[in-house]
Design goal:
about 600 residues; alpha/beta; 4-stranded antiparallel β-sheet; binds adenosine-5'-triphosphate
Length: about 600
């Protein structure tokens, strides 16, 4: 049997954000909010759940009837027993089908919520500012997208069935008991406050220990991701034991918090078992006494006992899954940390940019990192004309990469403004702007696709000729000749099969194929040998004049051909001019250049 989830799509992003902001700090309300728009599906699911559960309510009545008939045989006893048997069999036999139908409706809804939640997280992660990522380990985020959403999905599945069955069982058992004996009903009622008191007493410590455990898991996941990234460095320096010891500290943390959580969960489970088993046996003794006194029949003793066992069973299940419910609620909060995160990259999109020409102007820009103490840029002014190439030079840490990040819009100026084609950057649609620029970052980032996919990343309908043209520009023909499937050769994770220089040239090819109006090279030639550097240098020189080019390079010889070089010192431009002019001036640039020779 193959069923599919009704395709409503996974796009519930705005709805989920509203759900979180409206029901702040109420995970249960947030959970119910996920079912918005799924009322019909839930109603159908509940109908089938009632059918599925019905044998549990009917069989005790049938059992009691048969026992009563057997202990007091009379006219038509066999027929009456057979009639009860048929009724019971009818209810029992439909259970498999109704179970399937209930699962189909609820699992469909819950899996869709699971997918939509992950989709909402992915969308939000794509909106958060680059600064947010500098502050949080990626492993923690992975844990939220995968593990926390899985916990919420498990919670939804458990919540629906267990809570619904509990409520129905209590109602049916109470109604039938009340009908047969109000006195026994009162004994039944006494179990409820005991359950509530138990949950109330254990609620806080279980929640706290769940939170501590979840935080510990997130930290460890972050540390594992970091350890994996560091493996080549660790191995190269023979620091395996240092890393193992570092990881052991995290693992001990999980061990400790997990142990505390297990103790609390089990104490809770055991305490409730003792209380309810005692209740059950008391109930049996009580109804037994009533039967001895002739107030109720033997069949009714069995009926009450079965119902009471059911209610106790349901309460025990509820109590046993309570820690899981807490874990799920904690995950609802954890997902909220991302969905409610305020560090979203602003994108006002007030003024249309149209075709970018490439005029860039920094007007009195001040910049300070949110957690930084000093201004990296102070009263920074610079105008770059379309097609001009400008290189930034200066000592390490003077803010060259920061200027490029401001230009990409990763960082907002603390004061002052950046004009792009005379439009203040804060009023631009950043996606429209960034589609017309290209960046070759300091650290090359490749993914596990093919060479073709890595070069054309995100672009469609790019011909082989266009790809080959940029491959020639960056001098990658030699590499392609050696690749078994040419452009369609997979690169392995992060392009690990390539040399640093080859990776960097692919990164440059990715920038060039976009035919950008502004191109930004952040030390793009730093990992290249002299032969590759020459080829890249030619490609860079080729780009100069075609589009506005910004370059940061430590090797000052590589920026020789730039139209102007701006020497950055104390947060602003200390010197500006062509290579020859700055060398002739014998100022800061000249001195730095002389140090490199
Ligand atoms: N996220 C951050 N938070 C606080 N300070 C930062 C952050 N990133 C960078 N800085 C600081 O800002 C200053 C400028 O950094 P930037 O990377 O722009 O310098 P740079 O001139 O490109 O250096 P280099 O030539 O060594 O690459 C440095 O002192 C650095 O420590």
């Amino acid at each position: 049997m193959k069923e599919t989830i009704p395709e409503e799509g996974l796009e519930h992003f705005d709805e989920y954000l509203q759900n979180y902001s409206k029901n702040e700090n109420h995970p249960l309300k947030i959970l119910l909010g996920f079912y918005k728009g799924k009322k019909l599906q839930c109603a159908k699911g509940f109908f089938w759940l009632i059918c599925q559960r019905s044998p549990v309510w009917v069989t005790p009545i049938v059992t009691a009837n048969i026992i009563d008939i057997a202990t007091n045989p009379g006219k038509n006893s066999i027929q009456r027993i057979l009639f009860n048997l048929v009724i019971a069999l009818l209810f029992i036999s439909q259970n498999a089908f109704s179970n399937y139908m209930a699962t189909k409706h609820f699992s469909g809804a819950n899996r869709e919520i699971e997918g939509s939640l992950r989709n909402a997280l992915v969308r939000k992660l794509q909106q958060l500012s680059i600064m947010f990522y500098k502050e949080i380990q990626s492993g923690r985020l992975q844990s939220k997208v995968m593990r926390d959403v899985e916990n919420v999905q498990a919670l939804l599945n458990q919540m629906v069935r267990t809570l619904f069955f509990f409520i129905l069982d209590v109602i049916i058992a109470s109604a039938v008991t009340l009908y047969h004996s109000p006195l026994v009903f009162v004994v039944f009622l006494a179990a409820i406050p005991v359950a509530v008191a138990g949950i109330y007493y254990f609620k806080k410590p279980i929640s706290e220990r769940n939170r501590a455990f979840r935080t510990e898991m997130e930290s460890t996941q972050g540390a594992v991701a970091e350890m994996l990234e560091m493996i080549p460095v660790t191995r190269a320096h023979g620091l395996q034991e240092v890393e193992i010891n570092k990881m052991q500290r995290y693992l001990k943390g999980i061990m400790h918090q997990g142990f505390q959580l297990d103790l609390m969960n089990n104490l809770f489970g055991a305490a409730s078992w003792v209380v309810f088993q005692s209740f059950q046996i008391l109930c049996l003794a009580f109804t037994g006494c009533l039967a001895v006194k002739g107030k109720i029949g033997v069949g009714e003793v069995v009926l009450f006992q079965t119902y009471f066992t059911q209610i106790v069973g349901q309460i025990s299940t509820l109590i046993n899954i309570y820690p899981d419910l807490c874990k799920g609620m904690e995950s609802v909060r954890s997902i909220g940390d991302i969905l409610e995160e305020k560090q979203v990259e602003p994108n006002h999109s007030i003024v249309p940019l149209g075709d970018l020409k490439g005029n860039v102007r920094f007007c009195n820009v001040d910049f300070k990192y949110p957690d930084g103490e000093r201004y990296i840029l102070k009263d920074f002014n610079l105008e770059v004309k379309p097609g001009e190439s400008i290189a930034f030079a200066g000592e390490s840490g003077t803010g060259k990469s920061t200027i490029l990040n401001l230009l990409i819009g990763f960082l907002p100026p603390t004061d002052g403004k950046i004009l792009i084609d005379r439009i203040n950057m804060v009023n631009l649609d950043m996606n429209e702007y960034r589609k017309q620029i290209a960046v070759v970052p300091q650290n090359t980032i490749l993914f596990s696709g093919t060479i073709r996919e890595n070069i054309t990343y995100g672009l469609e309908n790019i011909s082989d000729d266009e790809i080959w043209s940029v491959i020639h520009e960056v001098g990658l023909e030699d590499l392609l000749d050696k690749m078994p499937d040419g452009l369609d050769t997979p690169l392995g994770e992060h392009g690990d099969r390539l040399s640093g220089g080859q990776k960097q040239r692919i990164s440059i090819a990715r920038a060039l194929i976009r035919k950008p109006k502004i191109i930004i090279f952040d030390e793009a030639t730093s990992a290249l040998d002299s032969a590759s550097e020459k080829k890249v240098q030619e490609a860079t020189d080729h780009m100069m004049g075609k589009c506005t080019t910004f370059i940061v390079a430590h090797r000052l010889s590589t920026i020789r051909k730039a139209d102007r070089i701006a020497f950055i010192k104390d947060g602003s431009v200390a010197e500006i001019g062509s290579y020859e002019e700055l060398m002739a001036k014998k100022g800061y640039f000249y001195r730095l250049k002389s140090l490199q020779e």
